[in-house]
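At your convenience, could you comment on the folded chain following this short note?
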Amino acid sequence: MPSAETTPTSAYEPDLVAPTKNDEVAASGSELIGGPLGRRALVGTSWWTPVRIIALVAIGVFALGLVQKAPCYNGAWFFGASSQYTHACYSDIPHLYQGRGFADGLVPYFDKLPGDMQYLEYPVLTGVFMEVASWLTPGSGTIQDQEQWYWMVNAGMLMVCAAVIAVCVTRTHARRPWDGLLVALAPAFALTATINWDLLAVALTAAAMLMWSRGRSLAFGVLLGLATAAKLYPFLLLGPLLLLCWRAGRWREFGTALGGAIVSWAVVNLPVMLLAFEGWSKFYTFSQERGVDFGSFWLIMAQNSSDPLSTETVNTLATLLMLLCCAGVAALTLTAPRRPRFAQLAFLIVAAFIVTNKVYSPQYVLWLVPLAALARPKWRDFLIWQACEVAYFLGIWLYLAYTTSGDAHKGLPPDGYHWAIAVHLLGTLYLCAVVVRDILMPERDPVRRAGDDDPSGGVLDGAEDVFVFGPAAHPPRHAAHMTDGAYVQWGTNASGTAQSTTNE
Protein backbone atom coordinates (compact mmCIF):
# COMPACT_ATOMS: atom_id res chain seq x y z
CA MET A 1 0.00 0.00 0.00
CA PRO A 2 1.18 3.58 -0.57
CA SER A 3 1.80 5.57 2.58
CA ALA A 4 -0.82 7.93 3.90
CA GLU A 5 0.90 10.94 2.35
CA THR A 6 0.93 9.75 -1.25
CA THR A 7 -1.80 9.70 -3.85
CA PRO A 8 -1.90 7.68 -7.09
CA THR A 9 -2.58 10.20 -9.86
CA SER A 10 -2.81 7.91 -12.87
CA ALA A 11 -1.99 4.46 -14.13
CA TYR A 12 1.26 5.82 -15.51
CA GLU A 13 2.37 7.83 -12.48
CA PRO A 14 1.50 5.81 -9.35
CA ASP A 15 2.33 6.89 -5.85
CA LEU A 16 3.11 10.54 -6.57
CA VAL A 17 3.28 12.73 -3.47
CA ALA A 18 0.47 15.30 -3.49
CA PRO A 19 1.40 18.39 -1.43
CA THR A 20 -2.28 19.21 -0.94
CA LYS A 21 -2.58 16.00 1.10
CA ASN A 22 0.18 16.73 3.60
CA ASP A 23 0.88 20.47 3.45
CA GLU A 24 -1.71 22.70 5.10
CA VAL A 25 -0.62 25.82 3.20
CA ALA A 26 -0.70 23.99 -0.14
CA ALA A 27 -4.15 22.59 0.67
CA SER A 28 -5.48 26.05 1.55
CA GLY A 29 -3.95 27.62 -1.54
CA SER A 30 -5.40 24.92 -3.78
CA GLU A 31 -8.91 26.18 -2.97
CA LEU A 32 -8.26 28.91 -5.52
CA ILE A 33 -8.12 26.28 -8.29
CA GLY A 34 -10.69 23.77 -7.10
CA GLY A 35 -9.30 22.28 -3.91
CA PRO A 36 -6.86 19.50 -3.01
CA LEU A 37 -6.01 16.76 -5.50
CA GLY A 38 -8.56 13.96 -5.24
CA ARG A 39 -8.09 10.20 -5.30
CA ARG A 40 -9.40 9.91 -8.86
CA ALA A 41 -7.52 12.86 -10.35
CA LEU A 42 -6.04 12.01 -13.74
CA VAL A 43 -3.02 14.27 -13.76
CA GLY A 44 -0.45 12.99 -16.21
CA THR A 45 -2.83 11.11 -18.53
CA SER A 46 -3.11 14.01 -20.98
CA TRP A 47 -0.88 16.76 -22.32
CA TRP A 48 -1.22 18.55 -18.96
CA THR A 49 1.54 16.76 -17.09
CA PRO A 50 3.01 18.32 -13.92
CA VAL A 51 6.20 19.25 -15.79
CA ARG A 52 4.32 21.15 -18.50
CA ILE A 53 1.98 22.84 -16.05
CA ILE A 54 4.85 24.01 -13.86
CA ALA A 55 6.90 25.19 -16.86
CA LEU A 56 3.97 27.30 -18.07
CA VAL A 57 3.37 28.68 -14.57
CA ALA A 58 7.06 29.60 -14.32
CA ILE A 59 6.92 31.42 -17.66
CA GLY A 60 3.72 33.21 -16.64
CA VAL A 61 5.11 34.38 -13.30
CA PHE A 62 8.37 35.40 -14.99
CA ALA A 63 6.28 37.52 -17.40
CA LEU A 64 4.62 39.20 -14.41
CA GLY A 65 8.10 40.06 -13.20
CA LEU A 66 8.76 41.72 -16.56
CA VAL A 67 5.58 43.74 -16.22
CA GLN A 68 6.80 44.93 -12.81
CA LYS A 69 9.82 46.44 -14.62
CA ALA A 70 7.61 48.40 -17.04
CA PRO A 71 8.15 51.83 -15.37
CA CYS A 72 11.89 51.48 -15.91
CA TYR A 73 11.52 50.20 -19.46
CA ASN A 74 9.40 53.27 -20.23
CA GLY A 75 12.06 55.71 -19.12
CA ALA A 76 13.08 55.41 -15.45
CA TRP A 77 16.39 53.75 -16.39
CA PHE A 78 17.41 56.78 -18.38
CA PHE A 79 15.65 59.95 -17.23
CA GLY A 80 15.74 59.80 -13.45
CA ALA A 81 18.36 58.32 -11.17
CA SER A 82 15.99 57.83 -8.25
CA SER A 83 12.81 56.89 -10.11
CA GLN A 84 14.21 53.45 -11.03
CA TYR A 85 14.56 52.87 -7.30
CA THR A 86 11.22 54.28 -6.18
CA HIS A 87 9.56 51.98 -8.73
CA ALA A 88 11.75 49.05 -7.57
CA CYS A 89 12.54 48.18 -11.19
CA TYR A 90 16.31 48.64 -11.36
CA SER A 91 18.38 46.27 -13.53
CA ASP A 92 22.10 46.12 -14.28
CA ILE A 93 21.42 44.87 -17.80
CA PRO A 94 20.55 48.10 -19.68
CA HIS A 95 23.20 50.13 -17.85
CA LEU A 96 25.99 47.69 -18.68
CA TYR A 97 25.12 47.57 -22.38
CA GLN A 98 27.01 50.81 -22.85
CA GLY A 99 29.00 50.73 -19.62
CA ARG A 100 30.79 47.49 -20.56
CA GLY A 101 31.39 48.29 -24.21
CA PHE A 102 28.71 46.14 -25.89
CA ALA A 103 27.19 49.20 -27.55
CA ASP A 104 30.59 49.97 -29.09
CA GLY A 105 31.30 46.43 -30.26
CA LEU A 106 34.14 45.82 -27.80
CA VAL A 107 35.09 42.18 -27.25
CA PRO A 108 34.82 41.12 -23.58
CA TYR A 109 38.14 40.28 -21.87
CA PHE A 110 40.18 41.28 -24.93
CA ASP A 111 39.32 44.96 -25.38
CA LYS A 112 39.93 47.45 -22.60
CA LEU A 113 36.98 49.47 -21.35
CA PRO A 114 37.06 53.22 -20.78
CA GLY A 115 37.24 54.27 -17.15
CA ASP A 116 38.44 52.45 -14.05
CA MET A 117 36.86 49.04 -14.70
CA GLN A 118 39.21 48.26 -17.63
CA TYR A 119 37.72 44.80 -18.33
CA LEU A 120 34.40 42.99 -17.95
CA GLU A 121 34.11 41.77 -14.35
CA TYR A 122 32.01 38.65 -15.04
CA PRO A 123 33.02 34.99 -15.49
CA VAL A 124 33.62 33.84 -19.05
CA LEU A 125 30.38 31.97 -19.76
CA THR A 126 28.31 34.88 -18.45
CA GLY A 127 30.37 37.17 -20.66
CA VAL A 128 29.52 34.95 -23.64
CA PHE A 129 25.83 35.16 -22.71
CA MET A 130 26.04 38.96 -22.56
CA GLU A 131 27.89 39.10 -25.87
CA VAL A 132 25.36 36.87 -27.67
CA ALA A 133 22.55 39.09 -26.41
CA SER A 134 24.38 42.13 -27.81
CA TRP A 135 24.59 40.43 -31.23
CA LEU A 136 20.80 40.01 -31.18
CA THR A 137 20.22 43.63 -30.18
CA PRO A 138 19.38 46.02 -33.05
CA GLY A 139 22.12 48.59 -33.50
CA SER A 140 19.83 51.32 -34.86
CA GLY A 141 18.08 54.08 -32.95
CA THR A 142 19.22 56.03 -29.92
CA ILE A 143 21.34 54.46 -27.22
CA GLN A 144 18.25 54.39 -25.02
CA ASP A 145 16.42 52.36 -27.68
CA GLN A 146 19.31 49.94 -27.92
CA GLU A 147 19.48 49.53 -24.13
CA GLN A 148 15.77 48.79 -24.03
CA TRP A 149 16.19 46.15 -26.73
CA TYR A 150 19.23 44.72 -24.97
CA TRP A 151 17.25 44.27 -21.76
CA MET A 152 14.36 42.69 -23.65
CA VAL A 153 16.64 40.26 -25.52
CA ASN A 154 18.31 39.27 -22.26
CA ALA A 155 14.91 38.91 -20.61
CA GLY A 156 13.85 36.46 -23.31
CA MET A 157 17.03 34.41 -22.87
CA LEU A 158 16.68 34.48 -19.08
CA MET A 159 13.06 33.35 -19.39
CA VAL A 160 14.33 30.19 -21.07
CA CYS A 161 16.69 29.71 -18.12
CA ALA A 162 13.78 30.14 -15.69
CA ALA A 163 11.75 27.49 -17.50
CA VAL A 164 14.74 25.12 -17.47
CA ILE A 165 15.15 25.63 -13.71
CA ALA A 166 11.48 24.90 -13.02
CA VAL A 167 11.52 21.76 -15.20
CA CYS A 168 14.74 20.44 -13.67
CA VAL A 169 13.50 20.91 -10.11
CA THR A 170 10.18 19.29 -11.05
CA ARG A 171 11.93 16.21 -12.42
CA THR A 172 14.69 15.86 -9.82
CA HIS A 173 12.41 14.33 -7.17
CA ALA A 174 10.49 11.88 -9.34
CA ARG A 175 7.69 11.25 -6.85
CA ARG A 176 7.35 14.93 -5.91
CA PRO A 177 6.92 16.85 -9.19
CA TRP A 178 4.60 19.43 -7.65
CA ASP A 179 7.44 20.76 -5.50
CA GLY A 180 8.50 22.55 -8.66
CA LEU A 181 5.68 25.02 -8.00
CA LEU A 182 7.76 26.42 -5.16
CA VAL A 183 10.19 27.67 -7.81
CA ALA A 184 7.58 28.66 -10.36
CA LEU A 185 5.57 30.74 -7.88
CA ALA A 186 8.41 32.16 -5.78
CA PRO A 187 7.78 35.95 -5.66
CA ALA A 188 11.42 36.87 -5.02
CA PHE A 189 12.40 34.75 -8.04
CA ALA A 190 10.15 36.78 -10.36
CA LEU A 191 11.17 40.13 -8.87
CA THR A 192 14.94 39.56 -9.14
CA ALA A 193 15.18 37.43 -12.29
CA THR A 194 16.24 40.25 -14.61
CA ILE A 195 18.41 42.30 -12.27
CA ASN A 196 21.52 40.51 -13.51
CA TRP A 197 22.55 37.36 -15.38
CA ASP A 198 22.53 34.90 -12.44
CA LEU A 199 19.82 32.68 -13.95
CA LEU A 200 22.29 31.19 -16.43
CA ALA A 201 24.39 29.65 -13.65
CA VAL A 202 21.27 28.69 -11.68
CA ALA A 203 19.83 26.84 -14.71
CA LEU A 204 23.06 24.93 -15.31
CA THR A 205 23.25 24.02 -11.61
CA ALA A 206 19.64 22.81 -11.58
CA ALA A 207 20.33 20.71 -14.68
CA ALA A 208 23.44 19.29 -13.00
CA MET A 209 21.46 18.26 -9.94
CA LEU A 210 18.89 16.57 -12.17
CA MET A 211 21.66 14.57 -13.84
CA TRP A 212 23.09 13.51 -10.49
CA SER A 213 19.65 12.37 -9.33
CA ARG A 214 19.52 10.13 -12.42
CA GLY A 215 22.91 8.57 -11.61
CA ARG A 216 24.72 10.38 -14.45
CA SER A 217 27.80 11.57 -12.59
CA LEU A 218 29.76 12.64 -15.68
CA ALA A 219 26.91 14.77 -17.02
CA PHE A 220 26.55 16.27 -13.55
CA GLY A 221 30.22 17.20 -13.49
CA VAL A 222 30.19 18.71 -16.97
CA LEU A 223 27.13 20.85 -16.21
CA LEU A 224 28.47 21.92 -12.83
CA GLY A 225 31.76 22.96 -14.45
CA LEU A 226 29.84 25.04 -16.96
CA ALA A 227 27.78 26.56 -14.15
CA THR A 228 31.00 27.50 -12.35
CA ALA A 229 32.23 29.10 -15.58
CA ALA A 230 29.13 31.32 -15.38
CA LYS A 231 29.20 32.08 -11.63
CA LEU A 232 31.53 31.06 -8.84
CA TYR A 233 29.09 29.55 -6.33
CA PRO A 234 28.17 26.24 -8.07
CA PHE A 235 31.59 24.69 -7.34
CA LEU A 236 30.62 24.74 -3.66
CA LEU A 237 28.30 21.77 -4.30
CA LEU A 238 31.34 19.55 -4.74
CA GLY A 239 32.14 19.89 -1.02
CA PRO A 240 28.89 18.35 0.28
CA LEU A 241 29.02 15.76 -2.49
CA LEU A 242 32.52 14.74 -1.39
CA LEU A 243 31.30 14.25 2.18
CA LEU A 244 28.24 12.25 1.13
CA CYS A 245 30.26 10.03 -1.21
CA TRP A 246 32.82 9.55 1.56
CA ARG A 247 30.11 8.42 3.98
CA ALA A 248 28.59 6.10 1.37
CA GLY A 249 31.90 4.93 -0.15
CA ARG A 250 31.00 6.19 -3.64
CA TRP A 251 34.46 7.41 -4.62
CA ARG A 252 34.33 6.42 -8.29
CA GLU A 253 31.19 8.45 -8.94
CA PHE A 254 32.61 11.47 -7.14
CA GLY A 255 35.86 11.21 -9.09
CA THR A 256 33.93 11.09 -12.36
CA ALA A 257 31.90 14.16 -11.38
CA LEU A 258 34.99 16.08 -10.29
CA GLY A 259 36.84 15.21 -13.49
CA GLY A 260 33.92 16.28 -15.65
CA ALA A 261 33.63 19.60 -13.78
CA ILE A 262 37.33 20.40 -14.13
CA VAL A 263 37.43 19.57 -17.85
CA SER A 264 34.28 21.52 -18.79
CA TRP A 265 35.38 24.55 -16.76
CA ALA A 266 38.80 24.42 -18.41
CA VAL A 267 37.35 24.11 -21.92
CA VAL A 268 35.47 27.37 -21.40
CA ASN A 269 38.15 29.27 -19.50
CA LEU A 270 41.53 28.17 -20.86
CA PRO A 271 41.27 29.86 -24.29
CA VAL A 272 40.46 33.22 -22.71
CA MET A 273 42.95 32.67 -19.89
CA LEU A 274 45.79 31.98 -22.34
CA LEU A 275 44.94 34.71 -24.85
CA ALA A 276 43.71 37.49 -22.53
CA PHE A 277 44.81 36.67 -18.99
CA GLU A 278 44.42 40.20 -17.64
CA GLY A 279 40.83 40.43 -18.86
CA TRP A 280 40.02 36.87 -17.74
CA SER A 281 41.34 37.48 -14.23
CA LYS A 282 39.33 40.67 -13.72
CA PHE A 283 36.41 38.78 -12.18
CA TYR A 284 38.64 37.20 -9.54
CA THR A 285 40.62 40.35 -8.71
CA PHE A 286 37.43 42.43 -8.59
CA SER A 287 35.84 39.99 -6.14
CA GLN A 288 38.83 40.38 -3.83
CA GLU A 289 39.23 44.14 -4.19
CA ARG A 290 35.62 45.28 -3.84
CA GLY A 291 34.65 46.57 -0.42
CA VAL A 292 31.70 45.57 1.72
CA ASP A 293 28.51 46.07 -0.22
CA PHE A 294 24.74 45.91 -0.15
CA GLY A 295 22.83 43.27 1.79
CA SER A 296 25.59 41.96 4.05
CA PHE A 297 25.98 42.20 7.81
CA TRP A 298 29.45 43.58 7.07
CA LEU A 299 27.76 46.70 5.66
CA ILE A 300 25.78 47.18 8.87
CA MET A 301 29.02 46.97 10.84
CA ALA A 302 30.83 49.36 8.49
CA GLN A 303 28.10 52.00 8.49
CA ASN A 304 27.85 51.92 12.28
CA SER A 305 31.58 52.09 12.96
CA SER A 306 33.83 55.10 13.20
CA ASP A 307 36.75 52.92 12.09
CA PRO A 308 35.44 50.34 9.57
CA LEU A 309 37.43 47.20 8.89
CA SER A 310 39.66 47.24 5.84
CA THR A 311 38.74 45.20 2.77
CA GLU A 312 41.65 42.84 3.42
CA THR A 313 40.48 42.23 6.98
CA VAL A 314 36.91 41.60 5.85
CA ASN A 315 38.16 39.17 3.20
CA THR A 316 40.09 37.24 5.84
CA LEU A 317 37.27 37.18 8.37
CA ALA A 318 34.67 36.21 5.75
CA THR A 319 36.92 33.36 4.59
CA LEU A 320 37.37 32.14 8.17
CA LEU A 321 33.62 32.27 8.80
CA MET A 322 32.98 30.31 5.62
CA LEU A 323 35.57 27.70 6.58
CA LEU A 324 33.92 27.40 9.98
CA CYS A 325 30.57 26.82 8.28
CA CYS A 326 32.17 24.18 6.04
CA ALA A 327 33.53 22.42 9.12
CA GLY A 328 30.06 22.49 10.64
CA VAL A 329 28.50 21.01 7.52
CA ALA A 330 31.18 18.30 7.48
CA ALA A 331 30.53 17.40 11.11
CA LEU A 332 26.79 17.37 10.49
CA THR A 333 27.20 15.13 7.44
CA LEU A 334 29.40 12.54 9.13
CA THR A 335 27.54 12.38 12.46
CA ALA A 336 23.88 12.76 11.48
CA PRO A 337 21.73 9.79 12.51
CA ARG A 338 20.90 9.28 8.84
CA ARG A 339 22.95 10.41 5.88
CA PRO A 340 21.70 13.90 4.87
CA ARG A 341 20.12 14.39 1.50
CA PHE A 342 22.29 16.01 -1.18
CA ALA A 343 19.85 18.90 -1.70
CA GLN A 344 19.88 19.69 2.03
CA LEU A 345 23.64 20.07 2.16
CA ALA A 346 23.76 21.93 -1.16
CA PHE A 347 21.32 24.50 0.21
CA LEU A 348 23.23 24.86 3.48
CA ILE A 349 26.64 25.37 1.89
CA VAL A 350 25.43 27.95 -0.65
CA ALA A 351 23.44 29.78 2.04
CA ALA A 352 26.55 29.85 4.25
CA PHE A 353 28.57 31.34 1.41
CA ILE A 354 25.98 34.07 0.83
CA VAL A 355 25.41 34.95 4.48
CA THR A 356 29.13 35.21 5.30
CA ASN A 357 30.01 37.06 2.10
CA LYS A 358 30.76 40.79 2.06
CA VAL A 359 27.91 41.34 -0.39
CA TYR A 360 24.40 39.82 -0.46
CA SER A 361 22.83 41.28 -3.60
CA PRO A 362 19.04 40.90 -3.97
CA GLN A 363 19.43 38.56 -6.97
CA TYR A 364 21.45 36.08 -4.90
CA VAL A 365 18.14 34.67 -3.73
CA LEU A 366 17.97 33.06 -7.17
CA TRP A 367 20.87 30.78 -6.21
CA LEU A 368 18.90 29.44 -3.28
CA VAL A 369 15.33 29.10 -4.59
CA PRO A 370 15.73 25.76 -6.47
CA LEU A 371 17.93 24.34 -3.71
CA ALA A 372 15.41 25.38 -1.06
CA ALA A 373 12.57 23.75 -3.00
CA LEU A 374 14.47 20.46 -2.98
CA ALA A 375 15.87 20.77 0.55
CA ARG A 376 12.71 21.79 2.39
CA PRO A 377 9.60 21.37 0.19
CA LYS A 378 7.21 22.85 2.73
CA TRP A 379 5.17 25.87 1.72
CA ARG A 380 4.98 27.56 5.14
CA ASP A 381 8.74 27.74 5.66
CA PHE A 382 9.40 28.58 2.03
CA LEU A 383 6.94 31.49 2.07
CA ILE A 384 8.28 32.85 5.37
CA TRP A 385 11.71 33.02 3.76
CA GLN A 386 10.32 34.51 0.55
CA ALA A 387 8.47 37.21 2.51
CA CYS A 388 11.78 38.21 4.11
CA GLU A 389 13.45 38.39 0.69
CA VAL A 390 10.63 40.48 -0.80
CA ALA A 391 10.93 42.86 2.16
CA TYR A 392 14.63 43.22 1.43
CA PHE A 393 13.98 43.67 -2.29
CA LEU A 394 11.84 46.70 -1.48
CA GLY A 395 14.21 47.89 1.22
CA ILE A 396 17.33 48.14 -0.93
CA TRP A 397 15.61 50.17 -3.65
CA LEU A 398 14.03 52.53 -1.12
CA TYR A 399 17.45 52.98 0.48
CA LEU A 400 19.02 53.79 -2.89
CA ALA A 401 16.16 56.21 -3.57
CA TYR A 402 17.02 57.90 -0.27
CA THR A 403 20.69 58.24 -1.20
CA THR A 404 20.03 59.52 -4.75
CA SER A 405 17.15 61.93 -4.10
CA GLY A 406 19.38 64.72 -2.79
CA ASP A 407 18.11 66.89 0.03
CA ALA A 408 14.60 65.52 -0.43
CA HIS A 409 15.72 62.17 1.09
CA LYS A 410 12.77 60.25 -0.32
CA GLY A 411 13.03 56.64 0.70
CA LEU A 412 14.47 54.53 3.48
CA PRO A 413 17.24 55.97 5.69
CA PRO A 414 20.28 53.86 6.63
CA ASP A 415 18.82 52.65 9.93
CA GLY A 416 15.73 51.37 8.15
CA TYR A 417 17.86 49.71 5.50
CA HIS A 418 19.85 47.94 8.20
CA TRP A 419 16.62 46.45 9.49
CA ALA A 420 15.81 45.26 5.96
CA ILE A 421 19.22 43.57 5.78
CA ALA A 422 18.60 41.92 9.15
CA VAL A 423 15.22 40.62 8.00
CA HIS A 424 16.53 38.88 4.91
CA LEU A 425 19.55 37.47 6.74
CA LEU A 426 17.30 36.11 9.48
CA GLY A 427 14.94 34.67 6.87
CA THR A 428 17.79 32.75 5.26
CA LEU A 429 19.11 31.60 8.64
CA TYR A 430 15.62 30.46 9.63
CA LEU A 431 15.38 28.20 6.60
CA CYS A 432 18.89 26.90 7.31
CA ALA A 433 17.86 26.08 10.87
CA VAL A 434 14.81 24.14 9.67
CA VAL A 435 16.94 22.15 7.22
CA VAL A 436 19.47 21.33 9.95
CA ARG A 437 16.62 20.18 12.19
CA ASP A 438 15.39 17.89 9.40
CA ILE A 439 18.87 16.38 9.14
CA LEU A 440 19.14 15.78 12.88
CA MET A 441 15.52 14.58 13.09
CA PRO A 442 14.86 12.75 9.78
CA GLU A 443 11.29 12.02 10.82
CA ARG A 444 10.58 15.77 10.42
CA ASP A 445 11.89 15.84 6.84
CA PRO A 446 8.89 16.07 4.48
CA VAL A 447 10.70 14.09 1.78
CA ARG A 448 11.57 11.20 4.08
CA ARG A 449 8.20 11.26 5.80
CA ALA A 450 6.74 10.34 2.42
CA GLY A 451 8.94 7.23 2.22
CA ASP A 452 11.90 8.39 0.12
CA ASP A 453 15.56 8.29 1.10
CA ASP A 454 17.46 10.77 -1.08
CA PRO A 455 15.72 11.21 -4.46
CA SER A 456 18.20 13.92 -5.50
CA GLY A 457 21.12 11.73 -4.40
CA GLY A 458 21.42 9.46 -7.43
CA VAL A 459 23.82 6.66 -6.46
CA LEU A 460 23.52 7.80 -2.85
CA ASP A 461 19.80 7.06 -2.75
CA GLY A 462 19.39 4.04 -0.47
CA ALA A 463 23.13 3.36 -0.30
CA GLU A 464 24.55 1.92 2.90
CA ASP A 465 26.99 3.93 5.04
CA VAL A 466 30.59 2.80 5.13
CA PHE A 467 32.10 5.71 7.09
CA VAL A 468 30.35 7.59 9.88
CA PHE A 469 31.11 9.08 13.30
CA GLY A 470 29.15 9.33 16.52
CA PRO A 471 26.00 7.39 17.48
CA ALA A 472 25.20 6.84 13.81
CA ALA A 473 28.32 4.65 13.58
CA HIS A 474 26.50 1.86 15.44
CA PRO A 475 23.01 1.57 13.89
CA PRO A 476 20.86 -1.57 14.04
CA ARG A 477 21.80 -4.13 11.40
CA HIS A 478 18.62 -3.36 9.46
CA ALA A 479 17.80 0.26 10.29
CA ALA A 480 14.13 1.06 10.01
CA HIS A 481 13.14 4.61 9.20
CA MET A 482 9.68 5.56 10.37
CA THR A 483 7.14 7.35 8.22
CA ASP A 484 3.47 8.05 8.94
CA GLY A 485 2.06 4.60 9.46
CA ALA A 486 4.87 2.91 7.58
CA TYR A 487 8.58 2.33 7.68
CA VAL A 488 11.17 1.80 4.99
CA GLN A 489 14.03 -0.66 5.24
CA TRP A 490 16.90 0.10 2.90
CA GLY A 491 19.07 -2.63 1.48
CA THR A 492 20.25 -4.05 -1.84
CA ASN A 493 18.74 -6.59 -4.13
CA ALA A 494 20.55 -9.51 -5.74
CA SER A 495 22.04 -7.29 -8.43
CA GLY A 496 23.42 -4.83 -5.90
CA THR A 497 20.88 -2.10 -6.68
CA ALA A 498 19.45 -0.18 -3.75
CA GLN A 499 15.82 -1.00 -3.05
CA SER A 500 13.30 -0.37 -0.29
CA THR A 501 10.58 -2.43 1.32
CA THR A 502 7.57 -0.65 2.77
CA ASN A 503 5.65 -2.26 5.59
CA GLU A 504 2.35 -1.22 7.08
